[in-house]
Amino acid sequence: MAKILVTGGLGFIGSHTVVELQNKGFEVVIIDDLSNSSEDILDRIDAITGIMPIFEKLDLKDKTKVQGFFKAHQDLQGVIHFAASKAVGESVEKPLLYYENNINTLVYVLQELQQLKTANFIFSSSCTVYGQADELPITENAPIKKAESPYGNTKQIGEEIIQDTCYITENLNAIALRYFNPIGAHESVKIGELPLGVPQNLVPFITQTAIGIREQLSVFGDDYPTSDGTCIRDYIHVVDLAKAHVIALQRLIEGKNTSNYETFNVGTGTGSTVLEVIKSFEKMSGQKLNYKITDRRAGDVISAYANTSKANNELGWKAELTLDDGMASAWKWEQEVRSK
Ligand code: WQD
After folding, report:
1. Ligand 1 binding pocket mutation candidate from 233, 234, 301, 303 (most atoms within 8 A of CB)
2. What's the 230 CA to ligand 1 centre distance in angstroms?
3. Is the C-beta atom of 332 inside 6 A of ligand 1?
4. For the domain that residue 15 is a member of, what is the CATH number?
5. Exposed/middle/buried for 146, CB within 10 Å: 0-12, 13-18, 19+?
6. According to the model, what pLDDT value does residue 313 have?
7. Is position 242 within any domain?
8. N or C: fewer beta carbons within 10 Å in the chain?
9. Considering only CA atoms, which residue is closest to atom 22 of ligand 1?
């Protein structure tokens, strides 16, 4: 059974990907520093799949520890690299924390992969790399624009580091998956998004408002040039996103990649405005949401949604779940978490 390392495997997208990897018969080893997750996610993954992943609490900023790990796991068939800090606003306040945590760790992992006979690497990238694209829907050939935040910059730099390394490393094959906006939770309601503190992202703020933890949702601006004045994003169910990682990994293991560095947009291909997301939530929950329109948020792009034809045709992956599925599962998850 092929053994796969998932860094950040106890996080939101990481844990859902571990479940899908196990469903496909992979043996999973998780590295997580527990800075933005908790160890009880392991039991929850086990409760879903019946398989307890191997877990090592390890800070990937510690190069010696990373070297020790890879020495002990020479039989890895692939690495899916989620471990990174990901709060856009925090990255503006603490840029060096983001460059250290998101870039150094990537370099240390890649240095170890270079030593292996063959190395298959899946990188967690983001549609943030496009900034406000000139053309919509966004294709993988859209120009990479100056990042709006240190967080977004670490994704751009990360892609360049991987590309440069693949260029001179025969045995290293990599795919960067550029996520749009991940939402929702596993149908088992055992894993989902667990934002620490006040949620930065729209959907957890919606569900925390609906359950009474937050007073009211602020809609950041309704004077954009869109159908209802609010920003457009491509909200992709986290389970569809997780499945894309497994399919991308299988592509590399089976040698189906057409070059040793590829990028794919992972979205639904459908854009939804903030007000449409709220409407979807109200429909799926049967609850009215308390929100108000406030000023725009600095750094927000007007509209971002994916052209998914490359992922559909070359990767052989397509999103199956809808915005309503995402909102319904996010709401179920919020109710479950708060019922504890
Ligand atoms: C979505 C829309 C907001 C909160 C970021 C990162 C991206 C990824 C996902 C990590 C925007 C509006 C939001 C609120 C609101 N992060 N909004 N009120 O900014 O598209 O993407 O998170 O991987 O890389 O860039 O997501 O959920 O913050 O915002 O009106 O309280 O919801 O203005 O239009 P975003 P988001």
Report:
1. 233
2. 12
3. no
4. 3.40.50.720
5. exposed
6. 98
7. yes
8. C
9. 201
Full-prediction pTM beyond 0.90? yes
* 155 Cβ closer than 6 Å to some ligand 1 atom: no
For residue 163, how far is its CA from the centre of ligand 1 (angstroms)?
A: 27
> Are 95 and 41 part of one and the same domain?
yes
Q: Give the Å distance between the CA of 43 and the centre of ligand 1.
A: 30
CATH number, position 305: 3.90.25.10
Are 171 and 210 members of one domain? no
321 and 292 inside one domain: yes
Residue 166 shares a structural domain with residue 287: no
Cis peptide before 143 (omega within 30 of 0): no
Q: Can you read off the two tokens belonging to residue 120?
A: 């298959």
305 burial via Cβ count (<10 Å: 0-12, 13-18, 19+)? buried
What's the average model confidence in pLDDT over 110-135? Answer: 95
- The CA distance from 227 to 217, in Å, is 20
Catalytic residue flag (residue 305): no
pLDDT single digits (tens) 36-46: 999 999 999 99
- 148 pLDDT band, cuts 50/70/90, is confident
pLDDT digits (tens, 9 = 90+) for 200-240: 999 999 999 999 999 999 999 999 999 999 999 999 999 99
Parent domain of 19: 3-183+237-266
Residue 296 CA, closest ligand 1 atom number: 33
CA 112 → CA 53, 68, 116, distances in Å?
A: 22, 10, 7
Same domain, 128 and 252: yes
Shared-domain flag, residues 112 and 246: yes
Q: Phi then psi for 260, rounded to 5 degrees? A: -90, 10
